[in-house]
Design goal:
The protein is an alpha/beta fold and 387 residues long. 42% of the residues lie in helices and 14% in strands.
């Protein structure tokens, strides 16, 4: 049931009853037809296109880089070596993939059989559950409770069944942006040893944490998956990986001997060069957030002061998951915000927690972000007045 654009003659807008992935595709198409649309949901750093172009030129001007290697089975060896060096692990603990999502699929295929059980954090990014279901697993929700969205190790012990094969978490937590502390990781490792169930952590946002460490480096209890997509904004490269104990990587390779078919020899050659010299890309995302965060902080404070939202802005990353005060059905709110104000936020129902919205601020410039959040503030006031 698509709903119409606010401006007469426009095409259909994004349907909040869709899956999140389908909603995003439709939302971006709708925003492209609306010059004044305020896009406030994207949790990816905007692409550093000029930096990426310079790496491509360096790779292929005057010849072909020696990073242009076969990617069959294990992935590009230079990507594997760079990821291993970055995280202080051996190369036999890394396998390449087209992204964190596809790396997770490789792990699920190796460790989970139809009918097995998987614990998945709740609220969560819906791809986590859809991938586990695709592997034939039954799913048990592992609560991450507001306001801090911490993981309680004792909850895992209570929820693990005899056929539980995996626990799945994210770092930073998607959608709240909450950080798994080092102390929590130590507790989780102990629980994994107690239950015999490994813990997979999607670390697509982990580079936002200054003192963050790849979970798989902490011990064989953890499996880490990551990519260049979210923090570096390099979704065009489709480069991801899994890091785990050698015996887990061996099981992944045995389950999928050909590796990830989607890995591109071309883009992973470029990705290897990026991984070997990350400093310019790190400077890019830091500059984006240095510009965006003060704007977001000001608007969050103002909307909270007006009693419109509740929830602390996370200290790292570019997403925020506030509760909208007095609103339970945030699908309806998101629909109204678009149709009446051309403001796009992601309804909390996409992540399994209605009454909240996810706001992303890694993609826009400060001026655009300021204008969009001002419109959201005014729209939330209007929505409250109409109830």
């Amino acid at each position: 049931m698509n709903f119409p654009h606010a401006a007469e003659g426009r095409g259909p807008g994004p349907d909040p009853d869709d899956s999140y992935s389908r909603w995003v595709r439709t939302a971006m198409k709708a925003a492209a037809t609306a010059p004044d649309a305020a896009v406030l949901f994207d949790s990816t750093i905007r692409e550093p296109t000029d930096l990426l172009a310079s790496v491509v030129r360096r790779a292929f001007d005057g010849g072909v880089t020696d990073r242009y290697e076969s990617v069959f089975a294990e992935g590009n060896p230079y990507v594997v070596a760079a990821v291993a060096a970055r995280h202080g692990v051996s190369a036999d603990q890394v396998i390449g993939a087209t992204g964190a999502t596809s790396a997770m699929a490789l792990v699920l295929k190796a460790l989970v059989s139809p009918g097995d059980n998987v614990l998945i954090e709740q609220p969560c990014f819906d791809l986590l559950t859809s991938q586990a279901r695709d592997a034939g697993a039954t799913i048990t929700a592992l609560p991450r409770r507001a306001p801090d969205y911490a993981v309680v190790a004792a909850d895992i012990v209570k929820l693990v069944r005899p056929n539980t094969r995996l626990v799945v978490l994210t770092q930073l937590h998607n959608p709240s942006g909450s950080e798994l502390s080092r102390a929590t990781m130590v507790e989780l490792a102990a629980v994994s040893r107690q239950t015999g169930v490994p813990i997979l952590i999607d670390e697509a946002y982990a580079d936002f944490i200054d003192d963050g460490v790849c979970a798989a480096r902490l011990g064989p209890e953890f499996i880490s998956v990551g990519s260049l997509t979210k923090v570096q904004g390099l979704f065009a490269l489709k480069c991801g990986w899994a890091v785990a104990a050698p015996e887990i990587i061996a099981r992944v390779q045995a389950a999928t001997p050909q590796g990830d078919y989607g890995v591109s020899k071309l883009t992973h050659a470029v990705a290897a060069l990026v991984l070997e010299d990350r400093a310019p890309f790190e400077a890019h995302w830091r500059a984006v957030l240095a510009e965006a965060r003060p704007v977001v902080e000001g608007h969050v404070e103002a909307m909270a002061a007006d009693g419109l939202i509740e929830g602390v802005l996370p200290k790292a990353g570019c997403m925020y998951f506030p509760r909208v005060v007095g609103v339970e059905d945030t699908r309806a709110l998101a629909k109204w915000l678009w149709s009446e104000h051309e403001v796009l936020v992601a309804a909390g129902e996409f992540f399994g927690q209605g009454g909240h919205v996810r706001i992303g601020f890694g993609g826009g410039r400060a001026k655009t972000l300021d204008a969009g959040l001002s419109r959201l503030h005014a729209a939330l006031k209007a929505y409250r007045a109409r109830r």
